[in-house]
Amino acid sequence: MAFRPGIFLRCARGCCPDCAEPLPSGWAGMLSVPPVCSGCGLSLRRGGGFFLGAMVWNYGLIAFGALPVLAVLHLCGLLGRAASVQAAVAAALLLPVALNGIAWRLWLGTYYGFLPEQLPSEGRRADD
C-alpha cells in the first residue's frame, strides 16, 4: 500500500479525488462537501462512520494549529490572559464549523490517497 500524494493534493485543492471535477467553493464549499461528485457520481459522504476521519482532521487543525498559535501569542505578551481565553473559546466554538469543508477535503485525500483502489476509475462502483 503506497500513498498517492497526487490524489491527496487534488482533494486538498478542492477537487474530486477521482475525476478532478472542482467541488463547490465559496461559503458553500467551505462549510460542506456535496454528498456526490457532479462529474463522476462518486459518493463523497459514505456511511458507517466515514465522517469520523473529517472530525479527526478538524480536531487536529484546531488543537495543533490554531490553539498553539494563541498560546505562543500569550506567552510572547501579545495577548493578555482574558483576550487569550476569549480567543481560545471563540476558536474552539467557531473554527470547527468554518473548517468543516477543508477537513472533509483533507480526509477524502487521506482516505483515497492510501486506498486508491476504492475509486471508481480503479474498478469500484461509484455508488458503493
Judging from the principal axes of the Cα atoms, what is the shape? elongated
Helix percent reads 55-70%
Low-confidence stretches: none
Let me know the largest β-sheet. none
As for the number of domains, it is 1
Mean pLDDT: 87
**E-strand count:** 0
Strand content: under 5%
> What gap, in angstroms, lies between the N and C termini?
21 Å
Order of helices and strands: HHHHH
Radius of gyration: 17 Å
Alpha-beta content class: mainly alpha
Q: What's the total helix number?
A: 5
Describe, in short, the structure shown.
This protein has 128 residues and is mostly helical. It has helices at 5-12, 26-31, 52-75, 81-98, 100-114.
Task: Furnish the topology, listing elements before pairings.
Layout: H1 5-12, H2 26-31, H3 52-75, H4 81-98, H5 100-114
Can you put this structure into words, describing what you see?
- By secondary structure, the protein is mainly α.
- It has one domain (5-121).
- It has five helices and no strands.
- The protein has helices at residues 5-12, 26-31, 52-75, 81-98, 100-114.
- The longest helix has 24 residues, at 52-75.
- It is elongated and about 55 Å long.
- The two termini are 21 Å apart.
- The model has no long low-confidence stretch (mean pLDDT 87).
